[in-house]
Amino acid sequence: MYDTTLRDGSQGEGVSFSLQDKLNIAQRLAEIGIEFIEGGYPLSNEKDVAFFEKVRDLDLGNSKVCAFGMTRRRSMKAENDPGMKALVAAGTPCCTMVGKTWDYHATEVLRVTLDENLAMIGESAEFLAKHSEVLYDAEHFFDGYKANPKYAIETLRAAASAGAKWLVLCDTNGGSLPEEVAAITTAAREGLSDYDVQFGIHCHNDSELAVANSLTALDAGATQVQGTINGIGERCGNVDLIAIIANLGLKKPNYEVLGGRPLTQLTELSRFVYETANLQWRGNQPFVGQSAFAHKGGMHVHAINKAAKTYEHIDPELVGNERRILVSELSGRSNIEAVAGKHNLGEDKELMNKILAEVVRLENQGYQFESATASFDLLIKRVSGTFTPHFETIKYRIVAGDRDVENHVAFAEAIIKLKVGDTLWFDAAEGHGPVNALDAGLRKALTGAYPQLGEVSLIDYKVRVVDSASGTAASIRVNIESTDGKETWGTIGVSDNIIEASWRALVDSVEYKLHREAAASKPALAQTVGS
Amino acid sequence: MYDTTLRDGSQGEGVSFSLQDKLNIAQRLAEIGIEFIEGGYPLSNEKDVAFFEKVRDLDLGNSKVCAFGMTRRRSMKAENDPGMKALVAAGTPCCTMVGKTWDYHATEVLRVTLDENLAMIGESAEFLAKHSEVLYDAEHFFDGYKANPKYAIETLRAAASAGAKWLVLCDTNGGSLPEEVAAITTAAREGLSDYDVQFGIHCHNDSELAVANSLTALDAGATQVQGTINGIGERCGNVDLIAIIANLGLKKPNYEVLGGRPLTQLTELSRFVYETANLQWRGNQPFVGQSAFAHKGGMHVHAINKAAKTYEHIDPELVGNERRILVSELSGRSNIEAVAGKHNLGEDKELMNKILAEVVRLENQGYQFESATASFDLLIKRVSGTFTPHFETIKYRIVAGDRDVENHVAFAEAIIKLKVGDTLWFDAAEGHGPVNALDAGLRKALTGAYPQLGEVSLIDYKVRVVDSASGTAASIRVNIESTDGKETWGTIGVSDNIIEASWRALVDSVEYKLHREAAASKPALAQTVGS
Prior knowledge:
Two copies of one chain form a homodimer. Helices cover 38% and strands 20% of the residues of chain A. The first copy, chain A, is α/β, with parallel strands linked by helices. In chain A, the strands form four sheets. In chain A, strands 1-2-3-4-5-6-7-8 form an eight-stranded parallel β-barrel, surrounded by eight helices. In chain A, strands 11-12-13 form a three-stranded antiparallel beta sheet, covered by helices on one side. In chain A, strand 7, helix 9 (210-219) and strand 8 form a beta-alpha-beta unit. The radius of gyration of chain A is 28 Å and the shape is elongated. The termini of chain A are far apart. Mean pLDDT of chain A is 87; it is low at 297-302, 327-332 and 523-531. At the A-B interface, helix 4, helix 9, helix 10, strand 9 and strand 11 of A face helix 4, helix 9, helix 10, strand 9 and strand 11 of B. Strand 11 of chain A pairs antiparallel with strand 11 of chain B, so a sheet runs across the interface.
């Protein structure tokens, strides 16, 4: 497994990793047992240069960090080329160097002769091989082979003869079909049979065939797959290594993946990378999506337990995921059991049943606790009688309307009245919209009593109409994600009134923060100065 | 192509179609040239029963509507079985009937003998074949074949001998690999070689192989693919028919799809279905995603123009999509040209450019006109100077808050002040939430001047946070669908204030209705009695 989340993955639309993000992901990839971790393209930016410095301080076990770059420029010696120098300076055990396979690409885009292109590949590989293990990424290999098979093989031979240990066949545009990948991978192996090299496959998902193409290349003799976690990457993304690992590890007995480690960390890894990249999870992602083992109502839990294999292609626990029964009377049980462990509810069956009943009641109203674990924690506290509110809502009001009809300028204001202990707090705030105003007003009114709320801010706000069949009277589900800079937590509110739904999610967010701190230490007495 | 978006697709988490949604989608599927349109499961709910009644009024060209159901229950005659009766009552030209292939599933879950299972398949097919063309969906065919190949083939023979014209091999759990699908499809054809039947393939995407599995089954002799638009469906979804159509139509010259029609409507169809299902678009979806042909900055447009094929596996226009150079957008052109035709804008290049500029400006704010064609019509009128407003907003206000904090009872009230001609209208209304109140208030204030607005009601309301990175200050996109009982139309509003966004969508909805009537006949003079 060769992971390029940190390099090719970061080409995806909306993806941007900080230096610390990159280090965190590298650590996780090593822990799960990824052999090659491509960290970046040191010539392209300072952040990647810094990554290769800092990554030396991490203990990555048997994983090898790779720096990525291009072959030397034309008409220049490899040792003088800035890209080559940057690769060597990265000081990684492996370097991955990309070069041109496609005759058209060399002559029409790079404007070099076919011979010069071969020299660029060979001389670059030879130079790098003095410093590290060399992987050669053959860009557009499949398109190039279709256009000029003889030349495409020559480019591989130029790299192999100069010391590249790995030849990686890239379907750069993601347009190849499995039958083409199988045939051309076989042809490449035959064309290099006199060299002691191994083959890799690097697929993009533009035809929704990246997983099939990668698997078929392995069946044709490749031994390395390059991809990214969750398939993030430019355009339609790279192949999703999660699906590759799970398919090979669980369905193809001839393969061993991750050095024989179990695959139970895959779901957590997937979500970690989404969160780090600030991307929405893909709910229906194979193996690790929230919906991957979700079953809609009307189906008896009894039947699923009796014959899970009639509904599930694998046991979800094998990849760290879980079965979810949607809407039915037993939804959320696995969540409840998982969380119950965290709360030391132990064997209290009666309490478990009360929690379950409350979850069912709320889910029928449109609640979903998957990404609102803070609200779920508070629900357990409320049902088990360990919840003491930090404040009491006396009143909230919002007023909104146009300020300037012609230019579509609107306003929103919130008025909040709360009670903390015996003290009344009354405050007002403006906002971009009613929810923004409510959020500002709530924190403003509480900051006197709980100054630590000054650290809290909202990082995400989602609105969903739960049942959109009744027009504007439909139920509205609001999900909020909050952070205090150290932790992030999700809360939820549902109502037919978006203001009320938002209010509930905001109140839970604040209560969660205050309860967590109260649990960590005895809370300070609320100050008694009203505002 | 056999589309089951309206049945299997609606099993997807978070997917719920109204009756009108289903009819709209059926119409689009027919227009694009889908041969079979599975409309629902009439035994399971009233909405699907109503669909099969209403769909008869649509002109679907050569497309055939299919009703879905199960084989008869055990120990019951087919003609007495409620499911069988519901299928016949649907009155469709085709019925799709699902039955059990897997011996384990029949004996352990259904608790019937293997012989009774065969009788259930055969008698059900025989009964249905008297009324319509019968398609037999062989549930778990690949798992069943692996467990007991002889019995699996017998189930197909039971259906074929009773008159089923199509045998559809289902990878119900989505766990099969392409090599298995190829071998087992071939075996099924051989096992049925003495029958004049055709084969279909029905794949789920649990292993991220649904597209590859479907293509390989076609290569092995199947001639029908069952799938959904955008691959929506239970768990990881069904196969995405968009990717199937595009791969077959653009990459496999031996196949003809959509009766030879061009594929340029695929992108619009994809987005229409997402909007109707109120799902986020999948940005990196192959062929039709917003990012599918997006190239990140730093790359010269010049270079892409010179050698697009070095970056793109197909010309994006072939599927109605477009290249995007991130940071400089030209989205919406295909829409504009399509709609321009409808409005007889003819060759007015200058007007086209002005419309284009306005669309780009609004899309940058978060507007999307795919399912808001009424707002788009009004945009064209506004830009071309043919828009005369039917009323002027003087003021709108909403007030909302808690009525009963303890029981989470909230209230919302709207105050509306408008001018029609020289007459001021002022009114107020309550609602379940602020938007519901605004809607009621707007119509109430206008009914004096335009009594025909009494016929109008909202049938759908959708809220989406466009940029959720800035918490509650994010932009909010509101989509509204309205009806007057004869026609339905969609409008849109975007603002950082949900109240303002909703107001814009509501105003467009009313203006669209009034303009359409004004175009049909000279409008009556507004009445002059204020309220």
